[in-house]
Write a structure and sequence with these properties.
By secondary structure, the protein is mainly beta. It is built from two helices and 28 strands. It has a 20-stranded parallel sheet that branches. A five-stranded antiparallel sheet has the order 1-2-3-4-28, with no helix packed on it. The radius of gyration is 25 Å and the shape is elongated.
Length: 331
C-alpha cells in the first residue's frame, strides 16, 4: 500500500514500511502490482526524531529455456504405446499415460499441481517449482496487433494472398483439392473462423518469401481446425526461419488425424481452458504443440523444433538498486 503500515518497535525505536510502484515516468501508483518495479519506504523514529528513506527495487525476470514438443497446460493423456515424441513433454497439471509411449526427451512437471495421475516409470522426469505461464492467443494477438487484437487481423489480413484466395474466412478442402498459404516479407497473417482438410487434399505452405501465421478465431468461438483422412500439410523446411504458426483461440478441439504431415507450430491456449489438441491415426508433426490439454491416440509422431513459442517471463527475485534517498528531511 502507499501509506505507512504497522508500526514495529525495537530497542532503538520504532519504524514503519510501505511500498509504491516505481514507473519509468516517475509516477508512483498504489497499490503496487506484483512483478513491477517498486520503491520501499521506511520511516524510523528514535527519541522523538523521525527520518524517512526510500530505496529502489527492481524485478528480475527469466523465461524458461526448455522447449517442448508438446505442452498441456492443464494436463494430457497418452493412450497406447505407439506414440513417439522427440523432445520434452511438459505440463502444469497431470499426465495420464495408458501405455508406454516413447519420449525421447524429458517429462517436465512445472508447479506444485503437476505430476502423474498414476505412477509411471522408465522416463526422465524433471520437476520445477513454478508453473509455466503461457499467454492466451488473444493476449498474443493484442501484443502483435494492438488494442483490437484478433478483431484487427479479422478485418485486415492476407487471405487474398492465398491460392485460391480465401473467402468468407473459411477453408474446406476434400478429395484431391488443395489450399496454398503464401508467405511474404515481414510475415503473412491469415484469419480463419474454421479450417477442414480431408480426403487426400493438401494444405501447402509456401513460405519461401516469409513467415506464415494462421489465426483461428474469434476467441471463445466454435470454429475448428481439422486435418483428417489422408490430408497432408507440407512446407519446404521445418527448420526454416520463415516459420509457419497456427494460433487457435476458439473453444473447439484442434484435430490432427489420419496420416497428415504438419511442419508447423500449433498454439491452442485460451481463457476458458476449453478445447484440446487431439492426435489420432498417424500424423507426423515437426514443430511444437502448446495446448490447454492434449490427447494422443493411435501412433502420432512429434519432433520438437526450437523457436516456435515462448511462455511469459516470470519474476525470479527482486533486487535493490541505486538510488537510496532521504525523503522530507528530519522531523
Amino acid at each position: 500500500s502507499g501509506v505507512p503500515g504497522t508500526s514495529y518497535t525495537t530497542a532503538a525505536g520504532t519504524f514503519q514500511i510501505y511500498i509504491t510502484q516505481r514507473n519509468a515516468d516517475g509516477t508512483e501508483p498504489t497499490p503496487w502490482t506484483a512483478g513491477k518495479n517498486l520503491w520501499i519506504y521506511s520511516t524510523g523514529s528514535v527519541s522523538g526524531v523521525s527520518r524517512t528513506v526510500k530505496v529502489a527495487a527492481i524485478a528480475y525476470t527469466s523465461t524458461p529455456t526448455d522447449y517442448y514438443g508438446v505442452y498441456g497446460v492443464t494436463g494430457g493423456v497418452m493412450n497406447g504405446s505407439a506414440a513417439t515424441v522427440t523432445g520434452n513433454v511438459g505440463t502444469n497439471g497431470l499426465f495420464n499415460f495408458n501405455g508406454q509411449p516413447t519420449i525421447n526427451g524429458s517429462i517436465v512437471f512445472n508447479g506444485s499441481a503437476a505430476g502423474w495421475q498414476s505412477p509411471q516409470s522408465g522416463y526422465t522426469v524433471v520437476t520445477n517449482p513454478n508453473p509455466v505461464i503461457w499467454p492466451t492467443v488473444e493476449a498474443i494477438a493484442l501484443q502483435t496487433f494492438g488494442a483490437q487484437g484478433l478483431s484487427f487481423v479479422a478485418a485486415y489480413n492476407d487471405n487474398g494472398l492465398a491460392s485460391p484466395p480465401i473467402v468468407n474466412k473459411t477453408v474446406s478442402t476434400n478429395g484431391n483439392g488443395s489450399q496454398t498459404f503464401v508467405g511474404k516479407a515481414g510475415g503473412a497473417n491469415y484469419y480463419l473462423t474454421s479450417l477442414s482438410c480431408g480426403g487426400n487434399s493438401k494444405l501447402i505452405f509456401n513460405n519461401a518469401s516469409g513467415p506464415i501465421t494462421i489465426w483461428v478465431g474469434p476467441s471463445g468461438g466454435s470454429g475448428t481446425f481439422s486435418l483428417k483422412g489422408g490430408a497432408a500439410a507440407v512446407k519446404s523446411s521445418p527448420a526454416s526461419p520463415n516459420a509457419v504458426r497456427v494460433y487457435a483461440a476458439t473453444n473447439s478441439d484442434v484435430l490432427l488425424n489420419g496420416n497428415s504431415e504438419l511442419d508447423a507450430g500449433i498454439y491452442h491456449v485460451n481463457n476458458s481452458g476449453v478445447g484440446q489438441v487431439a492426435f489420432s491415426g498417424t500424423p507426423d508433426i515437426h514443430g511444437s504443440v502448446i495446448a490447454n490439454s492434449f490427447t494422443f491416440n493411435g501412433n502420432p509422431t512429434v519432433t520438437a523444433i526450437q523457436g516456435y513459442f515462448s511462455p511469459n517471463a516470470t519474476v525470479t527475485y527482486y533486487g535493490f538498486v541505486p538510488p537510496w534517498l532521504e525523503v522530507g528531511g528530519v522531523n
